[in-house]
Write a structure and sequence with these properties.
This protein is an alpha/beta fold. Helices cover 49% and strands 11% of the residues. It has an eight-stranded parallel barrel, surrounded by six helices. It has a two-stranded antiparallel ribbon with strand order 1-2. Strand 10, helix 13 and strand 11 form a beta-alpha-beta unit. Helix 2 packs antiparallel against helix 3.
C-alpha cells in the first residue's frame, strides 16, 4: 500500500481497509465521524489523493447502503397515476460548502422520512464553483454517510446546455463537449441529466414546429448518446426543455411540437429505449431573479396555470411525470406549496442558498471575496449598476476561488451557516410535501447499485471551460 493511501486511511482513523481497488468498511461509526476529512482532501488537494479520497468515499458509501440512483421510474409511475400528486421533488444546486449543505439537507430529510429530493449542479456551475462531477457527487454521498441516511441518492446534471454562441462557431465541438460532460458525470454517479438545447430555439421561424425542430433533433441525439452509455441496470432520468428560462411563457403547442419531434427522432436513433421523464417549461421566472438598485429582488409572478396545464398534457399524452419549474429560489415562501397544488413534478432551487452563504459567513471573509470581485469580475459591472446589483450578479464567481478558505472557516462560523441552511430545508421540504416520500422511492426505484471504477477517479483533472453564456 502506498504512503499516500495510508495517509488517507489515517485521516479516517483506519476505519477502512484497501486491498488493490477493493475497499472495506471496518468501523462504520468511526468512518462517519471522520469522513469530512476525506471530503476536504477531495475538495482541496491538487494531487492524486483527491481522486483516491473520492473513490474511497463512493466505494465505502455503497457498502453502507448509500448509492447514486435515477429517479426515472418514480417519475414514470407518477405519469401513470400510481404515485399521488402530493409532493413536488425539490432539486438543489449546492454551490458552496456542498458537503456541509448536503449534510443539513439529509438531516432535514431524516426527520420526516423524506426520499424524493435531488442534488444538482449545472454545466456552468461546475466551472465557477470549481467542482467537477466527481467532487460534487463525493460531497453528496459523503454527507449521506455522515448523517446515517441509507438508500438511493439522486444526483443530477442541471442544464447540460448547448451554448448557442459556441454552436454557431463550431457545432460539432460544442455537442462533443456536452457528450464528454455526460460521460464524466455518469461515471461520477450523476444518473439524472437535464439535456438543454433550448438555447437553439428560434422563435422567429414561422411555425412552432419549425421553431422547436433543432431543439428536438439535438436533445434526442444527446438522449440517445446517454442511453447508449448509461451504466448497466440504470435508466438515466433525462429531462428536456422547451425554451430558455427568462423568456416567454411556454404553451401547449410548443410542448406538443417538442415532444412529437423528440419522440419521432428517438424512435429512429434509439428504438425501444425510454425517452424523457419530465419537461422544463417557462412560467415567468428567471435564473437568480432580478435585483433592484437597492439590492432587493423584484417580485416574481409565476404562471402556475402553465405548470398545471402542461403537466397534465405531459402525463396523459406523453407518459412523463410532469413539468419542471426552474428559477424558483426568489419565489415568495408562501407560494411554494402552489408548485404541489399545480402538479409540478420538480422545482429547482439555487440562488437563495448562495445568498444565505454570503449572509452568514464572517463579515471580513465576505469583504475579502467582494474585494476579489472588484478586480476579477470588473468587466461585469455595467454603467449605472449599483454595488448591490454588481455583487449580487457576480458573487457566485468567488465561490470556486475561495473554496479552500471556506473549508478553513472557524467551526462556529460554519455551524451558524449550516443551521440556517437546515432551517431552510426543513421549511421547503414541508411546503413541497417531501414528508414520507421515501416510501415511494423504496417502492419504485430499481437502479442498480453501481460500483465505482478506480480509473474514473485517479486521473488527470478536466480543465475548466468558458461558461459565461450558459444558464445555472
Amino acid at each position: 500500500m502506498s504512503d499516500q493511501i495510508q495517509e488517507l486511511l489515517n485521516l479516517v482513523d483506519n476505519s477502512l481497509s484497501v486491498d488493490g481497488a477493493t475497499v472495506k468498511v471496518l468501523d462504520a461509526a468511526k468512518f462517519r465521524k471522520n469522513i469530512g476529512k476525506l471530503v476536504e482532501r477531495s475538495a482541496t488537494a491538487s494531487d492524486s489523493s483527491a481522486g483516491w479520497s473520492r473513490y474511497l468515499i463512493r466505494a465505502a458509501a455503497l457498502e453502507l447502503g448509500v448509492y447514486a440512483a435515477s429517479i426515472h421510474e418514480l417519475y414514470l409511475a407518477r405519469g401513470r397515476g400510481e404515485v399521488p400528486m402530493t409532493f413536488t421533488t425539490p432539486a438543489f444546486n449546492l454551490r458552496a460548502l456542498s458537503f456541509h449543505a448536503a449534510s443539513a439537507m439529509f438531516r432535514a430529510a431524516n426527520k420526516i422520512n423524506g426520499g424524493a429530493f435531488i442534488f444538482e449542479l449545472a454545466r456552468s456551475e461546475m466551472s465557477y464553483t470549481a467542482q467537477r462531477p466527481s467532487e460534487y457527487a463525493t460531497n453528496i454521498l459523503a454527507a449521506a454517510v455522515a448523517e446515517g441516511f441509507v438508500g438511493p441518492v439522486f444526483i443530477q446534471g442541471d442544464h447540460f446546455q448547448v451554448s448557442a454562441k459556441k454552436y454557431a462557431t463550431d457545432a460539432q465541438a460544442e455537442l462533443q463537449a456536452v457528450r464528454d460532460l455526460s460521460i464524466e458525470a455518469m461515471a461520477a454517479g450523476f444518473y439524472n441529466i437535464d439535456v438543454d438545447t433550448s438555447t437553439l430555439v428560434d422563435i422567429h421561424l414561422p411555425t412552432v414546429a419549425e421553431q422547436q425542430a433543432l431543439n428536438c433533433k439535438l436533445s434526442s441525439e444527446l438522449s440517445a448518446f446517454i442511453r447508449e452509455n448509461e451504466p448497466a441496470g440504470v435508466t438515466i432520468s433525462i429531462g428536456g426543455e422547451i425554451g430558455e428560462v427568462g423568456t416567454v411563457n411556454s404553451t401547449e403547442p410548443e410542448l406538443r411540437a417538442y415532444m412529437d419531434g423528440y419522440n419521432a427522432e428517438m424512435k429512429k436513433l434509439a428504438p425501444g429505449k425510454p425517452g424523457l421523464s419530465k419537461i422544463s417549461v417557462l412560467t415567468g421566472t428567471s435564473h437568480g431573479g432580478t435585483v433592484l438598485a437597492d439590492g432587493s429582488l423584484a417580485e416574481v409572478t409565476i404562471a402556475f396555470d402553465v405548470l398545471r396545464d402542461l403537466s397534465r398534457v405531459a402525463r396523459s399524452e406523453y407518459g412523463m411525470g410532469g413539468t419542471v419549474q426552474h428559477g424558483a429560489s426568489t419565489v415568495a415562501e408562501e407560494n411554494f406549496n402552489k408548485f404541489v397544488q399545480n402538479e409540478a413534478i420538480e422545482v429547482h432551487l439555487a440562488t437563495n442558498f448562495t445568498t444565505m452563504f454570503f449572509d452568514n459567513v464572517p463579515a471580513d471573509f465576505k469583504k475579502e471575496m467582494y474585494a476579489w470581485l472588484d478586480v476579477n469580475s470588473a468587466g461585469d459591472r455595467k454603467p449605472g449598476m449599483t454595488d448591490e446589483q454588481f455583487y449580487y450578479k457576480t458573487r457566485k464567481n468567488a465561490v470556486g476561488p475561495f473554496k479552500a478558505k471556506s473549508y478553513a472557516l472557524p467551526e462556529e462560523a460554519k455551524a451558524k451557516l449550516i443551521a440556517a441552511w437546515e432551517a431552510q430545508f426543513d421549511m421547503l421540504f414541508n411546503l413541497l410535501g417531501v414528508k414520507d416520500t421515501k416510501e415511494y422511492v423504496t417502492k419504485y426505484i430499481t437502479s442498480a447499485k453501481v460500483a465505482p471504477k478506480l480509473a474514473d477517479y485517479v486521473k488527470a483533472d478536466v480543465a475548466a471551460e468558458d461558461v459565461s453564456d450558459l444558464a445555472d
